[in-house]
Amino acid sequence: MDPSSSVLPETILEQTASRLGCSPADKKLAFHLDEEDELKHLRKCFFIPKVKDLPPTDLSLVNGEESCVYFAGNSLGLQPRNVKTYLDEELDKWKTPKQVLIFIVVISGAQRHEVALMNGLTVNLHLQMLSFFKPTPRRCKILLEARAFPSDHYAVESQLRLHGLDVEKCMLMMQPREGEETLRTEDILAVIEKEGDSIAVILFSGVQYYTGQLFDIPRITKAGQEKGCFVGFDLAHAVGNVELHLHDWGVDFACWCSYKYLNSGAGGLAGAYIHEKHFQSIKPFKLENNFSFKLQLSEGINGFRLSNPPILLVCSLQASLEVFGQTTMKALRRKSILLTGYLEYLIKHYYNEDKTNPEKPFVKIITPSQIEERGCQLTLSFSLPIKSVFKELEKRGVACDMREPNALRVAPVPLYNSFHDVHRFIEILGSAITSSKQTANNTALSGSY
């Protein structure tokens, strides 16, 4: 399914179920969608943990030999099966790894000389901000989301303090409208138009880590640059999740980690991008010394590298990127839209708020419903205590994550998750909600004596 297509996931699900003679909520539809899935072979390229391998699992409730429902790819991607092969090969031969940049070029939509694998995400962000954030008395603000990932907040605050600026005045943070969870594009553009002459750098997420909102990268970039701002993005939750065209969109700079949707493992090698238009004007450091020779920086993004990328970290990333090389981001995105749409459909089918039955537990989806405004992640909030629901899901072999104050993040990843995974999650969620409600009722009763 093309993101620009007018056919919504729910329409495809209902039409397909009608042809099969079943309800869209029937497991029969999940099995059919998996059978027709052109990317189903990619699941075999990853190690799917068994239920018994997840420490919080209660084996009295589930079959420990079953594969778990792994919906935590937005936090830590699964291990590709070829990682051990490549690592063993390197340890035996200590040879130079194959070139992996070509895969990153395709996934990020950059030119080859605009991207590099290096360091960690926050290190790369600091290096880029040192070059792009050059405040003047008139233009000294940095615009970002109020709910940006904490390390991005810290990095921005550090950059402001480095220049001796007042954080309260120069850290311009955008909040959603009252009563809303996500930012409206028109509000972002309005702030840029109003405050743009005083903004030096705009730094947004590609996909917001908490809500799962996919920002309109090209429109934000265009609006910021028209006001004379540099525009950069933290793509930790976007790279490998949605289609990116960084070069064509004219994004000034971007950085990302690789252990989420790129599956490189915890602490994996990060990536950085700088548009070629800045190669002559932007330099990471000014190198001066008293020696008779001059130090010459590499041109472009490679001038920001602090050292060669560690070979063993390259190997784990290579194993994942070669799986990406078996398909395209367009095909992955097409499956992702339907897979997440299926999850959304079933949640609404079973757990929508029922005004006529206030006792019935319900689930609210925080993530935007428009497919062009989200990746694969859905962020859920519950009418029941979130910690209780999360604990019951863990007991039943579901890997997802909870974020304070009241969010459960679930991410069906098209590389390795199936439509049956989605259906299993919904079934398990029902059991988890029932147990959570019982626990809440028992607590209320005990408190009444």
From TrEMBL:
Q: Which SUPFAM superfamilies match?
A: PLP-dependent transferases
The protein's annotated pathway? Amino-acid degradation; L-kynurenine degradation; L-alanine and anthranilate from L-kynurenine: step 1/1; Cofactor biosynthesis; NAD(+) biosynthesis; quinolinate from L-kynurenine: step 2/3
Enzyme kind, highest EC tier: hydrolase
* Superkingdom assignment: Eukaryota
Q: Which reaction does it catalyse?
A: 3-hydroxy-L-kynurenine + H2O = 3-hydroxyanthranilate + L-alanine + H(+); L-kynurenine + H2O = anthranilate + L-alanine + H(+)
Q: Which compartment or compartments is the protein found in?
A: Cytoplasm
Where pyridoxal 5'-phosphate is bound, by residue? Answer: 121-122, 149-152, 205, 234, 237, 259, 308
Q: Name one GO cellular component term.
A: cytoplasm
Q: Principal place where this protein is found?
A: cytoplasm
Cofactor(s) the record lists: pyridoxal 5'-phosphate
Give the EC number(s) listed in the UniProt record: 3.7.1.3
| Entry's Gene Ontology molecular function annotations | kynureninase activity; pyridoxal phosphate binding
The reply on keyword Signal is: no
| Keyword Ligase annotated | no
- UniProt entry keywords in alphabetical sequence: Acetylation, Cytoplasm, Hydrolase, Pyridine nucleotide biosynthesis, Pyridoxal phosphate
Q: Which residues carry this modification: N6-(pyridoxal phosphate)lysine?
A: 260
Q: Name one GO biological process term.
A: quinolinate biosynthetic process
Protein family: Belongs to the kynureninase family.
Question: What is the protein's known function?
Answer: Catalyzes the cleavage of L-kynurenine (L-Kyn) and L-3-hydroxykynurenine (L-3OHKyn) into anthranilic acid (AA) and 3-hydroxyanthranilic acid (3-OHAA), respectively. Has a preference for the L-3-hydroxy form. Also has cysteine-conjugate-beta-lyase activity.
Quaternary structure per UniProt? Homodimer.
What this protein is called in its record is: Kynureninase
- Write down the species: Otus sunia (Oriental scops-owl)
Q: Which gene encodes it?
A: KYNU
